[in-house]
# Entry
Amino acid sequence: MEMAERWRPAWADVDLDAVVHNAALLGRLVAPAELCAVVKADAYGHGSLAVARAAVAGGASWLAVALVEEGVALREAGLEVPILLLSEPPADGMAEAIARGLSPTVYTEEGIAMLDRLAREGGHPPVGVHLKVDTGMHRVGAAPAEIPALARQIDAAPHLVLDALWTHFAVADGARSSDREFTNAQVARFDETLAALVAEGLRPRLEHLANTAGAIATPAARRHMVRCGLGLYGLAPTPALEAAIGELTGGDGLRPALSFRTQVTFVRELDASERVSYGLRRPLPEASRVAIAPVGYADGVPRRLFDVGGHVLINGVRRLLAGSVTMDQIIIDCGPSDTSDVKVGDEVVLLGRQGDDEIGAREWAEHFDTIHYEILCDIGPRVPRRHTGTLPS
# Structure
């Protein structure tokens, strides 16, 4: 449900200047390769249209999405740059993908045949397709041995053009020697597959292999284009890769674009040993002021944040939760009643900087044994995104 009006004091700030900066930095890092900005899943929860425009302003020459619907929304908003569909579109979405000028990924005989037929029936110019080879991720894509036949099928199709050959890395962010070896093996499989096409006179215009991690850690994989998602939003996949960016750019770094904020809506004083929230999980160690903030697990605040000793920031100070995260609210232990100055209206930072401290998506990811991507994408649609900074038209 789309809420026309919002009265709850909870929001996510998205700094578009940071997105522009990150796109420009990544573009400099991988040049002369082109930058493809991955804006699927509503730009990892940042807002796809605003982020897409900021990424293009920062130098991205391509966008990438997961769904035909996502590409259509960008086209309807006036984005004219090439838009890559990262998986072969479903049969009932192919005609719309062609009509909107999206660049489909293909990896099946049936998909190729249908795209060619629909392009002919619609009277469209030849459609540039990106043939995906599975070099070890084993998600989608054709096996290397199947690629030559698929490329020949594309070459023989009057209404298709083999625009690119591409693959996706599985462990480009890994620090183990086995991870590096596997990534190098993926590059080698890609090159062997490409060589088989070239031998038949079927060289595609573009080659692209690298995600954010691969673009940083595996220069040989940059080729003609890199597909950056997480880096666009100001986060490196690992601390080691974050340090590597600084080394490669002379000390420049990525800037996190999103912060997740709310406000104190109620405070109360409770005696020592009182227990709060569902389950009455923990007694207060001393008489304390507790504060209520109107966000919960329905908004992407993990229910386990209390269990792992997670904090929020109020007035630049880290505060523990006093009890379990509920669906719509959190309860914060603000310390002894006689010294706490927390009051209704104070800003509460769940993710982001306040004063001299910062709680980042990596901190939450480490708490919950997951990845930054999940943390960002889990911030729900009830939380409005407030885009600040550059708003390219």
